[in-house]
Design a protein that fits this description.
The chain has 2 domains: 242 residues, Alpha-Beta Complex (Spore Coat Polysaccharide Biosynthesis Protein SpsA, Chain A); 28 residues. Strand 2, helix 2 and strand 3 form a beta-alpha-beta unit. The chain contains 10 helices and 13 strands. Helix 7 packs parallel to helix 8. With 297 residues, it is an alpha/beta fold. A 5-stranded mixed β-sheet has the order 3-2-1-4-9, with helices on both faces. Strands 5-11-7-8 form a 4-stranded mixed β-sheet. A 4-stranded mixed β-sheet has the order 6-10-12-13. The radius of gyration is 19 Å and the shape is globular.
Length: 297
């Protein structure tokens, strides 16, 4: 059915609990999925062995020893058992709505993405309890916050779609934006599944990086990722999707906001029309100024 792949951080402290929760939720999906863990971070081989999932130790890294998105996607697409693939962050819990949502899509080539729900969840989930999913859904309803459409934590796509990815560092911003931008250049449906998939992001700190949150988002790896992005204009968010997945199936993304970003994308995707991007930037600058004055920014 589906090959899921990721590269986890070291299995220590809260991160160990969070990542174990996520991976256990993936192996409970039905029909059963292939799960591949990349890298040799502490505990990765052990959790792969314990759960009976595939482990690929070797992955290309930059000089900071951070795995490269390009290497992971390339190897995963070469060795995957299934034609349909999913890259996902190692802290995202999936539930029983995930595969049925994917099965609604009847086009041969597409990219499925969606917003995540941020929750505090630092304890192991007891997946042996029959009501574990109901508990998590209630927890999301009561405590969860829907993350803005600027962060994308899962990508479902057919094997072979993503080739020649720049050497982005995993987890250092911009690579998810680029994947959305590149999808639009490929002219395949870019589908937002937020309405039908509850993807749970377990909140965590950034103690895995020596520089903490600043090191992750403002350090040299982040700056390089932004350079590889090709400029801020290529930082596409979920507002650039072309389709929405609903309980009734795929529908065109035709809200006023979606149509605005559809038009905004034209001068970015068609470089000879780049001069048309300036009116959008002027409008957005004025809008930010108004919001600052009104205190709604």
């Amino acid at each position: 059915m589906l090959t899921i792949f990721t590269t986890p951080k070291s299995f220590r402290g809260d991160i160990k609990v969070i990542q174990t929760n996520a991976i256990r939720s993936w192996i409970l999906l039905r029909p059963a999925c292939e799960v591949i863990l990349f890298g040799d971070e502490e505990g990765t081989a052990e959790i792969a062995s314990e759960l009976g999932i595939r482990h690929i130790r070797e992955v290309e890294r930059n000089e900071y020893s951070t795995p490269l998105v390009s290497s992971m996607f390339s190897v995963a697409q070469d060795v995957a058992k299934y034609q349909l693939m999913c890259y996902i962050s190692a802290d995202i819990i999936l539930m029983s709505d995930f595969l049925p949502a994917i099965s609604q899509i009847k086009v041969p080539s597409f990219v499925l993405v969606g917003q995540r729900w941020d929750v505090d969840l630092s304890e192991p989930v007891d997946f042996d309890k029959p009501d574990w999913e109901a508990y998590l859904r209630a927890h999301v309803t009561e405590e969860g916050k829907l993350h803005p459409p600027t962060a994308i934590d899962y990508f479902v796509f057919p094997r072979g779609l993503y080739r020649d990815i720049p050497p982005f560092a995993v987890g250092r911003t911009a690579y998810d934006d680029w994947l959305l931008y590149w999808t639009r250049t490929l002219k395949v449906p870019l589908i937002d599944a937020t309405k039908v998939i509850t993807a749970i992001h377990q909140n965590h700190d950034y103690s895995h990086h020596p520089g903490g949150a600043a090191g992750v988002w403002e350090g040299p790896e982040s700056k390089r990722n932004i350079e590889l992005l090709g400029g801020r204009d290529h930082a596409f968010s979920l507002e650039y999707v072309t389709w929405i997945l609903t309980p009734q199936g795929m529908k065109r993304a035709l809200s006023m906001r979606h149509l605005y970003f559809r038009m905004r994308a034209i001068p970015i995707l068609c470089p000879h029309l780049h001069f048309l991007l300036m009116p959008f930037k002027i409008f957005e600058k004025c809008l930010r100024a108004v919001r600052l004055i009104l205190g709604t920014a």
